[in-house]
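Weekly modeling sync, notes
Attendees: S.R. (lead), two postdocs, one rotation student

Agenda item 3: backlog of single-chain predictions. S.R. asked that every request posted to the team notebook include the full sequence so nobody has to chase files. The rotation student volunteered to paste the first one in as an example of the format we agreed on. Action items at the bottom.

Example entry:
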Amino acid sequence: FFLMSAMQQGSVSGFLALSDLNDYIELGQNCLKPIETKDDKPVVVSLEDCLSCSGCITSAESILVSQQSQDECTQTIQQILQGKLQKRCVISITPQAAVSIAAARNETLAETYRFLSGFFYHTLGEGRAVEAVLDCSTAQDVSLRETIAECCERLRPLSAGAGKAPTPLLTGICPGVICYLEKVHPQLIPHILTAPSLQATQGALVKRVWAPQHGLRPEDVYHVCIAPCYDRKLEAVRFPQNDEDPISKLHPVDCVLAACEVAALVSKHGAPATPHNVVPLLDEPSTPLTIRGMPHSSGGYAHAVMRSVARELFGVEDAELHWEERPAMHLTRRESADARELVLSVPGQEKPLIAAMVSGFRNIQNLIRRIKTKKCPYFFVEVMACPGACLGGGGQCHPPRGTPARVFVEALRETLSRDVELRWPEDNAEADRAHRMLLAASEQGEEGAVESHPPASTYAKQLIHNKYYVRSSEDNSLQPSVMIPQW
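Predicted structure, as returned to the notebook:
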């Protein structure tokens, strides 16, 4: 959150100080390792501690995380350069983190991508350790496709007037929200979609698709993801595992660096002498880089789902030309960028289709009250923990002195809209190809071609979808949820 201040010092990623907690859920009183200091030294809490503890409501925002640090990243790259570690490093840059660094450097998004690529290729990797710096547009669209497919699968019985499904459906792409719901409102787990986030999808694509394409085994790749939020570090170790698939036992993302941590690395090691092209996942890099995708704070899930559900289930084409975007007055009495809704009138339907975008715990708590009292009008909610959604993530570069956080987030939103060319996920040919390769079956079809499983299929859910837990406050252990079928 912007409510946290990060000091990039020491051997861990940052010392996180609590300040002005007006939209933050505090640590629980029964944390296994209470955050205290001894001899002015911070207590180190591992990710495994977090995963096995039910004391905290949020996760990595208020603790020190030693396994996912900038020092760990640079040391690993040095080991690769010295021949002590037989791996190749791959860097993935998320657009929300990149736009934060672009604002700090007063650059366009394309210029920042080339700057960051040059920094990792030449400055840190010395032209030898870093194999590729990738953009995440393909992974974002694959994540959106899985979300759309799962939504349509769950909502189809409702649209036909048969069967029941818990609504609204909630995105499962924010690790802060997932930790909060698992620990405090586990009865809402049936509402959460299992479709993977951008980061989880990028990790699967790098290890399962990109690596074999470049003659590498998945275990030979050290994958670093540049993200806008510290909670993404927790997500990196919370990955789906299939006992029948040895690749799934590998971390899809080995290290997560927040945008402000990357800015600290640049300050420490110096800017690159020359920029370098960012590489798409499959296609050859274009010069200059054309950035396409959903120019929204957290990937455009509500917009993409509304458009596809309207077309697939209700026969409404080009829904974006007909819906109204407005403040979510069901949740807040004041107009806020953190609570918006899309409203679409559907011919033959008594009530309109309404999807929402909700961020910040204050709005999330209002949403939960609406769900529990059965007064929630939404069929789908894109829900994010940080005020300002991913653009306001706690790991973003800090706003200029004297600039309110919300004003800075709005400026980031405008930059994203300006520098990213709108492209709906179904129009991304590379994403379609990568998605098919990721879900390729082991068996071949009649003509010898490798067949691909469809999105949100049983195979897809086993391979890349999330799994949720009910976290007991009594025994501090993770218990698999029995509320909904998991894979």
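Discussion: group reviewed the output briefly. The mean pLDDT is 82.
Action items: rotation student to repeat for the remaining queue; S.R. to check formatting next week.
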